[in-house]
Amino acid sequence: MSTHSSIEWTDVTWNPVTGCTKISHGCKHCYAERMANRLREMGLEKYREGFSINVHESALNDPLKWKQPRFVFVNSMSDLFHKSVPAEFIERVFDVMGRAPQHRFQVLTKRPSRVAQMGGKLNWAPNVWLGVSIESERWLGRLATLKGTAARVKFLSLEPLLGPLPNMELDGIDWVIVGGESGPGARPMEANWVRDIRDQCESNDVPFFFKQWGGVFKKRTGRTLDNREWNQMPRVMQ
After folding, report:
1. At 6, is the secondary structure helix, strand, or coil?
2. Helix (H/G/I), strand (E/B), else coil: 20
3. I need a surface site. Which of 77, 106, 133, 227 has the fewest CB within 10 A?
4. Distance of CA 178 to CAs 29, 94, 97, Å?
5. Euclidean distance between the first and final Cα of the chain, in Å?
6. How far, CA to CA in Å, does 128 sit from each of 16, 73, 85, 133, 171?
7. How confident is the prediction along the chain (238 residues), in pLDDT tens digits per residue?
């Protein structure tokens, strides 16, 4: 089943895969890991193994049942392109997304190299968006790999933003999301990092979405930058 989401840039989450492992320093305080362990303690069958990687056949066809168009964040509790997710299952996820053209599917990964490895095996329907997470300059290589994929809409999730990202090459990028880390142990994000990214987006005519300042109590810090909210979305929607 779908889960209505409080994430500002989507409507629902869909998790045919759950569980992951840490790959870079942005994963240190993973919200999905905390949530999975909490759901295990609550006795939810889907999370009986906590944050171990599992595929869920029972969830695979859920989007085909939804008539009302939705933004769908794919695998908010995992990374679809983790090496432990069978390639055959990834292909089936893409097949489902292609058969639900009323929705826009937002696939986000820290492992775009596996996307590239799978090449032409994936059905890149126009309603399937692909994004990569980049938390600092160290991981800007993910941007270059993203550009080489066949996704029709490509986006960046710069969250948790842990350092400046100057001089990004944003040609071919349709959307940029920025957000600070939230929850226990949240690392701070500097305002000048955010403003620089916004200015890069404006210079390159790329829609900019500011999700949150973050912190231990993210509701207190809010999501306004320079006295306004930034809720721009990809122009493909028009």
Report:
1. coil
2. coil
3. 227
4. 17, 26, 26
5. 28
6. 16, 10, 19, 17, 19
7. 556 888 999 999 999 999 999 999 999 999 999 999 999 999 999 999 999 999 999 999 999 999 999 999 999 999 999 999 999 999 999 999 999 999 999 999 999 999 999 988 999 999 999 999 999 999 999 999 999 999 999 999 999 999 999 999 999 999 999 999 999 999 999 999 999 999 999 999 999 999 999 999 888 999 999 999 999 999 876 4
Distance CA 74, CA 76 (A): 6
Decide: residue 209, CB within 10 A, 0-12 exposed, 13-18 middle, 19+ buried.
Answer: buried
Residue 156: name the closest of 208, 113, 229, 78 by CA.
208
Tokens of 187: 């690392």
Q: How far is the C-alpha of 95 from the C-alpha of 215, rounded, in Å?
A: 38
How far is residue 51's CA from residue 18's CA, in Å, rounded to a whole number?
Answer: 7
Let me know: does 146 contact 107? Beta carbons within 8 Å. no
